[in-house]
Amino acid sequence: MKKIVELSNVIKEYGKSSNSFRALKEVSFDINEGEFVGIMGPSGSGKTTLLNIMSTIDKPTYGKVLLDGKDLNEFKGENLAGFRRDNIGFVFQSFNLLDNMTVRDNIALPLTLNNVRHEIILQKIDTFTKLLGISDQMDKYPVELSGGQKQRVAICRALITDPKVIFADEPTGALDSKYSSDVLECFKNVNSRLGITIIMVTHDSNAASYCDRVMFLKDGKMHGRLDSNGNKQEMFTKVLDMLAILGGSDNELL
Ligand SMILES: Nc1ncnc2c1ncn2[C@@H]1O[C@H](COP(=O)(O)OP(=O)(O)OP(=O)(O)O)[C@@H](O)[C@H]1O
Questions:
Q1: Cβ distance 12 to 46 under 8 Å?
Q2: How far is 216 from 229, CA to CA, in rounded Å?
Q3: What positions does the domain ABC transporter occupy (predicted)?
Q4: Whole-prediction pTM
């Protein structure tokens, strides 16, 4: 199995040395290509810090991160931006769609900015919007969509550049349970049909139950992992049990 993300001894310190705070403490793990991985843990445990470091948004203070075999420490400025554009898709809790653009133009944006040919953009939009069940929403504006539809548009926009990995930070955090499940089914589809690796930070045990593997952080350190056998209900129960051991119920972690 090919490794798509490799972290070794990653430490992240915020602030100046005399008054610094260590948010990640020697974190090491690998993620295989095609995995759907969840990251959970109490508030302040370092989940977003970890996601930002894996996704090139931030750099570790010490340690090494490889993405598709490339050492992220070696990319700077324009090269880093190019590497991010070519390899990584992002999905955020707040959707981050542009309100004055149609759904079609929102999805096309990463390719329009790259001067990709119009016919190619339309072809890709057609493929991905069909996969995500939003092909009839193309002429609408974000304000005319439900939260679940907005997040599906955001997933399409993340897919349009053919990323190797999609990083999602609390993608269901702003959705009620019905729309959350729709969005998670979409992620599952994208993962299983297109083979794209998905790495998702979540507080939601139901969201975590869709993952192949869930890794738990506490106080900046890895505190175990759970692997799914494909049974969502069993995974959900195992996740709840693990959260209880970590010192908080599902609700307390919100
Ligand atoms: N830019 C920063 N400067 C200083 N400290 C920071 C910064 N960003 C995060 N931290 C601290 O690092 C720790 C980890 O933060 P992080 O946002 O990664 O946690 P989290 O697990 O994602 O939390 P939550 O679930 O509440 O979003 C927290 O104690 C936080 O206060």
A1: yes
A2: 18
A3: 5-244
A4: 0.94
Domain boundaries, position 148: 35-57+78-245
Mutate to test the pocket of ligand 1, among 12, 39, 47, 57 (most ligand atoms within 8 A of CB): 47
ipTM: 0.98
3-state secondary structure of 85: helix
Count: domains in the chain: 1
Tell me whether residue 13 is in a domain. no
Distance CA 16, CA 29 (A): 27
Ligand 1 midpoint to CA 24 (Å): 10
CB count within 10 Å of CB 94 equals 12
Residue 246 has pLDDT above 90, yes or no: no
Query: Does any ligand 1 atom lie closer than 6 A to the CB of residue 16?
Result: no
Residue 178: CATH number of its domain = 3.40.50.300
Please list the residues that pair with 124 across neighbouring strands.
none
